[in-house]
Amino acid sequence: MVIDMHTHVWGGRYDLHTKQLIDNCERYGIAKIIVSGIARQYPNEEEIAGHNADVVRFKRERPDLVEGYVYVNPRNADAEDVLRRGIEDDGMIGLKLWIATYGDDPLVYPLVERCIGYGVPILLHAFHKAVNQLQDETTGVHVARLARRYPEAKLIMAHFGGNVYHGIKAVRDCPNVWTDYSGSLFGRDELDYAVGQIGAERIVFGSDMPGCSFLTNYAQLQEAELTERQREDIAYNNAARLFGLPV
User: Fold this and answer.
1) Label partner for 63 (CA 20 to 30 A): which of 8, 54, 89, 213?
2) 72: left (phi over 0), alpha (psi -120 to 50) or beta
3) Amidohydrolase-related domain spans which residues (predicted)?
């Protein structure tokens, strides 16, 4: 079984993206997807409300298949209230932070503290690029700083931090950081490297569908030099435990 904990419904593409996600889940036997809505780097309050409404709608249409992250722009004045409503009223099971602030920006601190209280994970986009790094784009170093400030927080560094040798090294000694390898970005040996550095128990499966290929990410899991138990943990068990889903 697979829990794909990194999927999206991009703003303005609800019908297309939900259909693509459902089709892939049915085609490949995906047990559960965890979805966030995103679009622009610095979304305003109205845009954030629309993205989260899309996820709530999708959850209600497919409660058997879909769980959701509440997406928050920490720069917006209503950020804490958006998080509260998402968790308490809408039944979201995590917080999604994208590229509006660095992951360790002080604007993020109140949100992290609330997530600790709720006991929910935080998925942070993280990338380390040779060129064209975005302003306010989190790297593994920012994730590690946040993890050390809040050791009780459950943090997920997305995309192996965009460069597995930079990102994994940054968070290796932070036991409250998990990571996904979503985005179809990585070579044959990089999942093996990550498991060797932090163990299979801190890696969760994500694809970044529908923008990226589920099969490419799943094939990396199958080709890696892992035990069957390690594959099962990465594909399903780790995310189930992290998000409080049935194991």
Assistant:
1) 213
2) beta
3) 3-245
Cβ-based burial of 14 (10 A; exposed 0-12, middle 13-18, buried ≥19): middle
Q: What CATH number is given to the structural domain containing 122?
A: 3.20.20.140
Residue 212 tokens read as 């990226």
For the chain, how many residues are written? Answer: 247
Dihedral of alpha carbons 138, 100, 215, 27, sign: positive
**Phi/psi at 28 (5° precision):** -110, 5
Enter the tokens of residue 55: 């996820």
Could you tell me which of 46, 32, 31, 38 has the C-alpha nearest to residue 9?
38
Helix axes 190-198, 214-223, angle to 10 degrees: 60
Supply the pTM of this predicted model.
Answer: 0.96
Count other C-beta atoms under 10 Å from residue 36's C-beta: 25
DSSP 137: -
Could you read off the pLDDT of 110-165 as tens digits, one per residue? Answer: 999 999 999 999 999 999 887 788 899 999 999 999 999 999 999 999 999 999 99
134 is in which domain, residue-wise? 3-243
Give dist(CA 171, CA 177) in Å, integer: 7
